[in-house]
Amino acid sequence: MEFIGPAIILGTIFFGTVSIIKAFSEHFLRKKMIDNNALDEKTINALKLDNNPHTALKWGMVAFFGGIGLILLEFIPHAYDSPLPFGVEAVMISLGFLVYYFMVKKQSKLV
Fold first, then answer.
1. 14 and 68 in one domain?
2. In terms of domains, do 81 and 91 share one?
3. pLDDT tens digits for range 40-86
4. Domain with 93 in it
């Protein structure tokens, strides 16, 4: 368990670097497409940042259930080197994704 701190830091640096490079490359691609007048309806739809209106709901549900998993770990006794916390957290995050999926599926049936 002593390696988790450096692993989190390395993962954060990697994810941050990839996100910055992706944002710059998408910006320059969009700028180049606009400058070259390559704008038809299909291209305009491709330039939109997010076509899914439920993105905030998805990540809210995942964060909510992830938090519930961390709260549960306070009350479940486990050994220091046990894989139980990872399993509980993975199950709770997966449950968050499933709840999100069924909420969106139910809402799309209503519309």
1. no
2. yes
3. 777 666 666 556 778 888 889 999 999 999 999 999 998 888 899 99
4. 50-111
